[in-house]
Amino acid sequence: MSFTHLSTQLCDKLLHDRQGRISLVGTFLNVKAQRFPTANDMGVVVVFRGDAGDPYCITVERPSMPPITIVQGTVEPPAELEHEYQLWAVAAAFEVNAVFPEPGIYSIVLRSGDEVVHAHQFGVFPAAAPRPQEETPDAEEVANA
Predict the structure, then answer these.
(1) Which among 22, 68, 110, 143 counts the fewest CB atoms within 10 Å?
(2) Domain boundaries, the chain
């Protein structure tokens, strides 16, 4: 079993074009929430290489909770490469509504069997309270002042 993690990215939305390319909209490092527990729609892209037929599993984890499996499958390289210099990788791209019961450090974990290949950590924490808006006088109040 030979796995190599290449990249993990979190974003607000994934867009797929007709050629199979993926665009990530609104990339971020951490999740801010007004209250807990909180649910957050997010896109996750994990790019890796592995041997044909190797099983993989991607989970969201936190030390105080059991892992939540997001996606699992087996590595399927292209049937045929177009050129001898062409590189390939598995791009597991998915959108998930993740529920975070409490603030803390969470991880997107890539596993092959029981082996942890890579853990991408991100923080989930309370958002700062919104600042009160100053009232703007309307045109009539300004004219009468």
Answers:
(1) 143
(2) 4-130
End-to-end CA distance of the chain: 77
CA atoms within 13 A on the CB side of 120: 19
Write the CATH number of the domain with boundaries 4-130: 2.60.40
Please check whether residue 49 is in contact with residue 89, taking contact to mean a CB–CB distance below 8 angstroms. Answer: yes
Tell whether the model's pLDDT for residue 60 goes beyond 70: yes
This prediction's pTM = 0.79
Peptide bond into 37 cis (omega under 30): yes
pLDDT in tens, 11-40: 999 999 998 889 999 999 999 999 999 999
